[in-house]
Amino acid sequence: MSGGGKYQAGQRVSLSASCESGYVFVNWTNNAGDTVSLNRSFTYVTTPANETLTAHFVFDPSAPSEPSDPILRHRVKVSTVDGGTVTAGASRLLEGESCTIQATPNSGYRFKGWFVCDTLYTSLSQFSYKMGKKDIHFVAKFEFDPANPSEPQMPEKNKYAFYMMTVIGKPGDILDIPLYLTSLDTLCDMSFQITFPESLRPEMNEFYLNDAAQGYSVSCTEVGDTCYIFSLIGGRIKAGNTELMRFKVPVPADYKTGMSERTKINQVSVIEKDGANITASTRNGRIAIYKRGDTNGDNVVNVTDVMNLVTFVLKEKTEVFINEVSDMNDDDTFNVTDAMGVVEIVLE
After folding, report:
1. Among 164, 199, 157, which Cα is nearest to 289's?
2. Contact at 8 Å (CB) between 264 and 177?
3. 28-87 tens-digit pLDDT
4. DSSP character string of 67-114
5. What domains are defined for the chain?
6. Is 178 exposed, middle or buried (0-12, 13-18, 19+ CB in 10 A)?
7. Phi, psi (rounded to 5 degrees) for 220
């Protein structure tokens, strides 16, 4: 399904539901169970209250190859604590489908292996996984190599670096904004200032510490409408590259698309394990917001976006392709269904 999110009352929202193989669409219903629409795709006018709309499907035994047992889709999750980056070709797969899973160590680290429930699955950094009968979670483990400690994200003259990345979303989204820390030694207490864009304010009652940073007492002081000073006291973080914190940032439904704004981190002070108080280097991030279906990022949804998505689905080269606004049915894959979703926007 696609189209859900936070909207102002009275706004016209395009909703769409797509059937998996072996199913047929029945209807959309509201909280009270009343039928809202018999069409898979329709325009809904929002009300002042929260509303949950449910798409109903029915299993059609004449359609699937296994008439008594539908082919199910399961989740494949990849993660790591620190030391590198991980990717998976898909996050949800039908039983029997395959995707490529890859781990890339940061400079100064070496790959140890992929683990499932703390059991080594493979020592290959890249492998093809065929989906089985249930969800699976792969954890990549890296080992810090002191013989080559240079970290590409860190300036040569500094042992510690705090940095944010570019996060992409669309109006109505609630974005996860991570803050990363790279260190060559154990850190104790720390403080830093973060400034968010004026129109993209974080929900300050919903910021999260990474498991690697547990044990800290966190305090936050607001020094401006979108500027906050954080102090982390009483914990320790080992050397490595890790996500330190994560913030929730709602994107207003009427946010101006086709632009990006900076998230800024500065005034960093850290205390090493021997008590020395030093500064750290920083790198700012950005938040970029595009229209849903704007696959090429030109702030217009038209036939060019449809062709761009089709080109990507055919695994041909595209100059620009924005994943975050191109998955029209939010199933974490890109196919003809997504192209049809963009077509529906173009024809509105």
Report:
1. 199
2. no
3. 999 888 899 999 889 999 888 888 999 998 877 665 555 555 668 888 888 876 667 778
4. TTSPPPEEEEEEEESBSEEEEES-SEEETT-EEEEEEEEPTTEEEEEE
5. 12-59 (no CATH), 73-144 (2.60.40), 160-289 (2.60.40.680), 303-347 (no CATH)
6. middle
7. -135, 130
Sole residue written with tokens 């920083």: 282
Type of residue at 260: S
- The number of CA neighbours under 13 Å toward the Cβ of 56 is 12
Is the CB of residue 95 less than 8 Å from the CB of residue 72?
yes
Rg (CA), the chain: 23
CB atoms under 10 Å from CB of 89, counted, come to: 15
**Selection from 167, 222, 231 nearest residue 200 by Cα:** 167
Written as one letter, the residue type at 271 is: I
How many Å apart are CA 232 and CA 245, to the nearest integer? 11
Give CA angle at 225 (224, 229), nearest 5°.
45
Q: How many Cβ atoms sit within 10 Å of the Cβ of residue 147?
A: 6
140-155: pLDDT as tens digits: 898 866 554 444 443 3
Query: Which residue is listed with tokens 């849903």?
Result: 292
Measured in residues, the chain has a length of 348
Tokens 């229209």 -> residue: 291
If we measure between CA atoms, which residue out of 248, 344, 251 comes closest to residue 7?
251
Residue 175 and residue 246: Cα distance in Å, rounded? 10
Q: For 160-218, give the secondary structure using H, E and C.
A: EEEEECEEEECCCCEEEEEEEEEECCCEEEEEEEEECCCCCCCCCCCCEECHHHCCCEE
